[in-house]
Specification:
The protein is mainly α. It has helices at 3-21, 24-27, 30-49, 63-77, 88-99, 102-122, 131-200, 207-257.
Amino acid sequence: MPAIKHAILLTMSVLGAYLYLQVPFLRHYSLQVFALITAIYLILQKKQRGRVYLILPENSSANLALINFAFLLLIGASGSLSSPFFALTFIELFFIALATLNKVAILMALEIMVFHFSLSIATSSNFVLSVSELSNLLALPVVMIFYLFAKDQYEKAYHSSLLVDAEARELNRAQSDDRAVAEFVSSLLDRRLPMLEFLLSFPEKNKSTIESEVKVLKRDLNLLTKQIAEKNKLNDEKMEALIEEVEIELSAQKNDES
């Protein structure tokens, strides 16, 4: 899903949760709705990803808006900034940070701040933020920035590991080629050259045998050269594809941040 559409969908989930909680009748059933939406979310995750425990939504997935709506309902209905479930907000931010672009994640952190602040004002006749509520509110952007920093570090480490793996495969390929050549040379020195020396002792008598042995030697050498060339070509293509993939991901990440 494009980033703009995903941001709009997530914004609608925040706005929808706020409007839902303004209706006293609906607010009374917030816990039941939270349980229902969570169950639907887990079912969708199992259907899309094959396992129930893979709860993190995929990048730019519409499922994120669903679980975001559920979190906001539960926390908002139970006291918002003073809710005993407010710690779930940090799990909500974690999902958002990993499943959206950085700009969208920051936007959502600000929207969630506004959501809780506005909801606290709307549900209080004499609105005053306590120290704990203020710290909860200010913690949201700080935690989101930390999540995004950790995400960036992980992606860089992942890309580095891909390059290291590629270099390791390149080294293994070179070592494999060396072993193949060494085995061929060993076979040549240990068996074929002594045999040729013996046959050359009587060249006229062993002419046909010598010619056939030389043909076999040429065939084996050509086969070895061909195998090494094909393997090198295949590995080069894989290496180029891997490097191109890493470069595309890094370029996309830089574009998102700019």
